[in-house]
Design goal:
Elements: E1 5-10, E2 14-20, E3 26-33, E4 41-46, E5 49-52, H1 61-74, E6 84-89, E7 100-101, H2 104-112, H3 121-134, E8 140-144, H4 154-157, H5 163-169, H6 178-192, E9 201-206, E10 210-216, E11 219-223, H7 245-252, H8 257-266, H9 269-274, H10 280-288, H11 292-312, E12 321-325, H12 326-331, H13 333-340, H14 352-356, E13 374-376, H15 381-393
Parallel strand pairs: 1-6, 6-8, 9-12, 12-13
Antiparallel strand pairs: 1-2, 2-3, 3-4, 4-5, 7-8, 9-10, 10-11
Bound molecules: adenosine-5'-diphosphate.
Adenosine-5'-diphosphate (ADP) binds next to helix 10 and helix 12.
Length: 401
């Protein structure tokens, strides 16, 4: 029986599991939300069909993992031990530049990064411990959001702060969404039939979290997220860049450290600007129906994104493509159009028809043909995590991907 790979993404507000076949096709996907509440919820898609999952009230991450694994086994999606288990781990600091087989030393090194990602790394570790108990004999691999960006040059990762901030506390720009940006590199390479080290591109991942990366000759050279995933673009509920003087200002207004942090992480971005929702689809509908706050949200989102695309050009010697991905990047023609409209001087122009079809009729290309190539490429972080996990756990096996 062919063996599957299990991908575990234990996030701050949800648990996602995926099972992928030996050739990295999706067999099952499960989403669990509202853990540690009276009403945890779970939904599963197995071989393309919806399945219901019942969780006990107040289930924690370990309970939910055990329940979901039992379901996957009962449906014959997981038969015996998986080949490998790949864990999405948000912060690897400077310790990890590639996917790594988990042992006690690796757990210690991930724990050492807890300060840098207090909302994410401790929960990632809970997922790792729980699956190690469920599958003690299966290799477990940590795939880091930060790893792809470990090639940033020092001039891109240093903040202009006293040196002790970096030396004593590791304060620098790390970058995130590395798995998705690396997947864009792989996908563009396949489309252009070019090896990664011959490719230069700008990858814009626009989901609830948003980040943009300049990839020069296959390496991340600049990216918009920094010490934490808060820096950079306007996101669903995160502010992205603000003046650091804002912290003092808000404290003078009487806001506590916690309320400032909550404001910047959970109440800002599209939600803050629109005053209603972080859902870009609903914001586009509201703008089209005449809402001025929805228009502001979209205008700021697109302008900030265009500014960052311009900034990313400083890291490239050539460009094989500007790539849009993530829920917004893949689906919203109007956001892509409004963003690219700021970039004519830099040689980006869109083809209206191709853009309206999200590039589906044109191999992902949505540019006019009179400038740089622009692509829409659906991301698949889970298959990338599975591939990296297999490669790390079985380095001597010939790659079929
Ligand atoms: P996550 O980062 O949580 O994985 P996604 O990549 O699924 O999120 O992106 C979610 C975002 O994509 C939401 O803002 C959603 O409104 C947006 N989105 C999805 N489809 C569309 C669409 N057709 N038009 C505009 N926005 C869309």
């Amino acid at each position: 029986m062919a063996k599957s790979t299990l991908v575990v993404n234990c996030g701050s507000s949800s648990l996602k599991l995926a099972v992928l076949s030996e050739d990295f096709e999706h067999q099952a996907q499960v989403l669990v939300e509202r853990l540690d509440t009276d009403h945890p919820s779970a939904s599963a898609r197995i071989d393309g069909k919806r399945e219901s999952v019942t969780l006990e009230p107040n289930s924690d991450y370990a309970d939910a993992l055990a329940t979901v694994v039992r379901l996957l086994e009962s449906k014959d999606v997981l038969t015996g031990d998986p080949l490998v288990i790949g864990h999405r781990v948000v912060h690897g600091g400077e310790n990890f530049s590639s996917a790594t087989v988990i042992d006690e030393a690796v757990i210690g090194a991930i724990t050492a990064c807890n300060d840098l990602a207090p909302l994410h790394n401790p929960i990632n570790l809970i997922g790792i411990e729980a699956t190690r108990k469920l599958y003690p004999d299966v290799p477990q691999v940590a795939v880091f959001d930060t790893a792809f960006h470990q090639t940033l040059p020092s001039y891109a990762y240093l903040y202009a702060l006293p040196r002790r901030c970096y030396q004593d506390w590791g304060v620098r720009r790390y970058g995130f969404h590395g798995t998705s940006h690396a997947y864009m590199l792989k996908q563009l390479g396949e489309r252009l039939d070019k090896p990664a080290n011959a490719l230069s591109l700008i990858s814009a991942h626009l989901g609830n979290g948003c980040s943009i990366t300049a990839i020069e000759k296959g390496q991340s050279r600049d990216t918009s997220m920094g010490l934490t995933p808060l820096e950079g673009l306007v996101m669903g509920t995160r502010s992205g860049d603000v003046d650091p003087g804002l912290f003092d200002f808000l404290q003078q207004k009487g806001l506590s450290r916690d309320s400032i942090s909550r404001m910047l992480n959970r109440e800002s971005g599209l939600l803050g600007l629109s005053g209603k929702t972080n859902d870009m689809r609903a914001i586009v509908e509201a703008r089209d129906a005449g809402s001025a706050t929805a228009r502001d949200a979209i205008d700021v989102f697109c302008f900030r994104l265009a500014r960052y695309i311009g900034a990313m050009m400083a890291s490239l010697s050539r460009i094989d493509g500007l790539v849009f991905t993530g829920g917004i990047g893949e689906n919203s023609a109007t956001i892509r159009e409004q963003t690219v409209a700021h970039l004519q001087l830099l040689g980006f122009t869109i083809d209206q028809n191709r853009n309206a079809q999200n590039g589906r009729q044109s191999s992902g290309r949505i540019d006019s043909g009179n400038g740089h190539a622009i692509y829409v490429i659906p991301t698949d972080e889970e298959s990338m995590i599975a591939r990296e996990a297999v490669d790390a756990a079985y380095p001597d096996t010939p790659k079929n991907h």
